[in-house]
Q: What sequence folds into this?
């Protein structure tokens, strides 16, 4: 009897291994990449005590320590050991993300993973494997995107290290990045990536403003530079969200009998118009958003990234002011009670 039960269990396990072979292989590959980052990360103190390490980079590391403390004390972010070590990337990217979208709907392709749920993107520590995944999506007729990732959160499973490329950012962008990722470790709702990313983007930006104001003052160059850059960024984001809304309306208006070729023509005409009209937005002098689409055209996957990260920003800002009197910590504390985190 025992042998029969054991044989049955082994057959089930073998069947599951065959069924989920690709997912298992992917999981092992990602685990290997993440483990490499974790094992090769060194304590921040080692860099600060190294006389050969540049003072300009040491100041960025000290800034990260201040941002962490600010997030824990002023914003209600969970205290943890994230960003107490650093992984030296050697100036190279470490992680790439593939995303895909339906060609005639702003509907992202979703990948399902055990424990953590469904995500509208898939990460790779190997660029060639990321390219193969994108090619597979291209063959299915999807609109695709592949991009490098500067930071990611392991959602409290591990202590996330500083990635050395973080230090290329200005003070405001660096503070925003750290607070964004720490927010993920504080509140991350399963199968709700759009909510999670919008919230982290909002907390990261609002937290960065408050941090810069407290550390440098409103009249400082660091504060003014960040606010000015945000002004252009917000104009661009809102413009692209408007473009996404227009495309969504176009796709929903298509007659089911309309042939794909005609759909493609109408889609491209609208995208061309969105790109051309970007020049009508009043960006500051020298803004990198001017002429952004002269050499490349966005697709649905690109437009979806704005929906994923920014669609709720204005709504969250109104709620922050009206319900929480501008207190980010109260908002986050309330959200932690309202939503179940992983």
A:
């Amino acid at each position: 009897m025992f042998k029969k039960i054991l044989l049955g269990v082994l057959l089930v396990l073998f069947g599951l291994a065959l069924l989920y072979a690709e997912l298992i292989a992917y999981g092992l590959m990602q685990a290997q990449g993440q483990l490499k980052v974790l094992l090769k990360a060194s304590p921040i103190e080692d860099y600060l005590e190294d006389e050969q390490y540049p003072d300009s980079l040491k100041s960025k590391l000290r800034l990260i320590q201040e941002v962490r403390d600010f997030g824990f004390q002023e914003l209600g972010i969970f205290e943890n050991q994230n960003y107490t070590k650093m992984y030296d990337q050697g100036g190279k990217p470490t992680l790439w993300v593939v995303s895909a979208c339906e060609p005639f709907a702003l509907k992202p392709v979703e990948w399902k993973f055990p424990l953590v749920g469904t995500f509208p993107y898939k990460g790779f520590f190997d660029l060639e494997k990321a390219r193969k995944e994108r090619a597979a999506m291209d063959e299915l007729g999807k609109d695709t995107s592949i991009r490098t990732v500067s930071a990611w959160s392991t959602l409290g499973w591990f202590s996330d290290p500083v990635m050395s490329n973080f230090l290329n950012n200005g003070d405001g962008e660096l503070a925003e990045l750290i607070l964004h990722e720490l927010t993920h470790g504080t509140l991350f709702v399963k199968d709700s990536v759009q909510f999670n990313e919008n919230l982290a983007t909002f907390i990261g930006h609002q937290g960065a403003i408050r941090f810069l104001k407290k550390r440098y003052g409103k009249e400082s160059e660091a504060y003014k530079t960040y606010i000015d850059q945000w002004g252009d960024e917000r104009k661009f984001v809102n413009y692209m969200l408007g473009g996404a809304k227009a495309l969504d309306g176009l796709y929903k208006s298509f007659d089911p009998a309309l042939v794909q070729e005609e759909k493609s023509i109408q889609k491209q005409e609208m995208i061309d118009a969105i790109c051309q009209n970007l020049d009508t937005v009043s960006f500051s002098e020298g803004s990198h958003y001017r002429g952004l689409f002269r050499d490349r055209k966005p697709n649905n996957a690109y437009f979806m990234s704005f929906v994923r990260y920014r669609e709720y920003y204005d709504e969250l800002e109104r709620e922050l002011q009206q319900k929480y009197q501008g207190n980010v910590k109260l908002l986050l504390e309330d959200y932690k009670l309202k939503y179940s985190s992983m």
Notes: The beta strands are 42-43, 85-87, 95-101, 111-113, 117-119, 122-124, 143-149, 162-163. Residues 172 and 225 are 8 Å apart (CA to CA). The chain is about 60% helix and 10% strand. The two ends are 41 Å apart (CA to CA).
